[in-house]
Design goal:
The chain is α/β, with parallel strands linked by helices. The chain folds into 2 domains: 108 residues, no CATH class; 95 residues, no CATH class. It is 35% helix and 12% strand. Strands 5-2-3-6 form a 4-stranded mixed beta sheet, with helices on both faces. Strands 1-4-7 form a 3-stranded parallel beta sheet. The radius of gyration is 22 Å and the shape is globular. 28% of the residues are buried.
C-alpha cells in the first residue's frame, strides 16, 4: 500500500491526540510511559550503531536517549547489530559518529552519544526501592551481542551490492530525495532500512521480490549521491537491482540489447 507522508504525519498527530490535551504534553507523557516500561523490564534489547573489534565497545547514537536507558536499567542487555557495523578499533569511531550527526540533522554531534564496553559494571538499579543507595547493589549484569549476517556476507562478495554495506544509516539520502519526501518511508523502504539505499538492503537481505515493492520509486536523479557522507552511488545500486528484477522470471520473449546495466563511468 502506497501511503503519503502527510497521511502518516496526520495519523501520528491523531495518535498523540487520543488522550486529549496538546500534542506536546502527550508527547512528554509518552516519554514518561516509555521510561517506566524500560525501568520495569527484565531484559533490554538495543541495536548498535557501531561495535569496535579491539575493545568490544558499542556506540549508540540516538536523538531521544531511550537506548542508553535500555542498556543500564534492566539487568540483562541484548545488543543486535549487523556484521557490517563492526569497526576495527575504538579510534575508528570518531569520524563515523561525527558523520551521522552532520549528515542526518546537521548537528555537530547527535543529542545522545553513548559508548558502552560490556559488561557494564555499574550497579543495576532497583527501581522498586527508590530509597536504596544505588552503590549498595552489587553488579549482577548479563550481556549478549547478536551479530546478524542475513545476507550481508554474501553482499560483501557482490561487486555491485557491496557498497550498500558502507551505509551508516544517517538518512541523508532519504532527506534529499523528492520522491521519499512525497511518499515517506512506509512506501519507499523495506524492513532493513528506508529511502533509496533500501533498494540495496532489501535486495541483499530479503531478496529481489522485497526490493521490487519500491525499487521503481528511485528515478535515478542522483541528488542523494552528493548528500551521502560515505559516497555511495545509490542510484547505481537501484539500477543494478532493477536490472536483476527485470531478468527474473520468464524472459524468453525479451531480447536484451546488453548483458547487465551499462557500466558506470567511475567504479569505486
Ligand atoms: S546511503 Fe549514504 S546517505 Fe543514505 S543513509 Fe546510507 S550513509 Fe546515509
Amino acid at each position: 500500500m502506497v501511503r503519503s507522508r502527510e497521511g502518516t504525519a496526520r495519523r501520528i498527530r491523531e495518535l498523540l491526540s487520543t488522550e486529549g490535551g496538546p500534542v506536546e504534553e502527550n508527547t512528554l507523557g509518552f516519554n514518561e510511559y516509555l521510561g517506566d516500561r524500560i525501568a520495569e523490564a527484565d531484559v533490554g534489547v538495543t541495536g548498535a550503531n557501531f561495535v569496535t573489534a579491539d575493545t568490544g565497545t558499542l556506540a549508540l547514537v540516538t536523538s531521544e536517549g531511550n537506548a542508553r536507558k535500555t542498556v543500564v536499567a534492566p539487568d540483562t542487555h541484548v545488543a543486535v547489530a549487523g556484521v557490517e557495523k563492526v569497526l576495527p578499533t575504538f579510534e575508528d569511531l570518531r569520524p563515523f559518529v561525527e558523520l551521522i550527526g552532520r549528515s542526518a540533522t546537521g548537528q555537530d554531534i547527535t543529542s545522545y552519544v553513548s559508548f558502552f564496553t560490556p559488561p557494564v559494571d555499574s550497579p543495576s538499579i532497583a527501581f522498586d526501592r527508590a530509597d536504596a543507595p544505588i552503590s549498595e547493589d552489587p553488579p549482577d549484569r548479563e550481556f549478549h551481542l547478536v551479530l546478524v549476517d542475513n545476507g550481508r556476507m554474501a553482499m560483501r562478495e557482490d561487486d555491485d551490492l557491496r557498497e550498500t554495506l558502507y551505509c551508516i544509516r544517517c538518512g541523508a539520502c532519504a532527506n534529499s530525495c523528492a520522491n521519499f519526501q512525497s511518499v515517506g518511508g512506509h512506501a519507499f523502504g523495506g524492513e532493513t532500512y528506508t529511502g533509496g539505499i533500501a533498494g540495496g538492503w532489501e535486495a541483499g537481505v530479503h531478496g529481489l521480490d522485497a526490493a521490487a515493492n519500491f525499487n521503481d520509486l528511485c528515478t535515478g536523479c542522483s541528488r542523494c549521491v552528493t548528500a551521502c557522507p560515505v559516497e555511495i552511488d545509490v542510484p547505481w545500486i537501484n539500477t543494478v537491482v532493477r536490472d536483476r528484477i527485470n531478468r527474473t522470471g520468464d524472459d524468453s520473449n525479451v531480447d536484451f540489447l546488453v548483458e547487465g546495466p551499462t557500466p558506470r563511468v567511475s567504479c569505486r
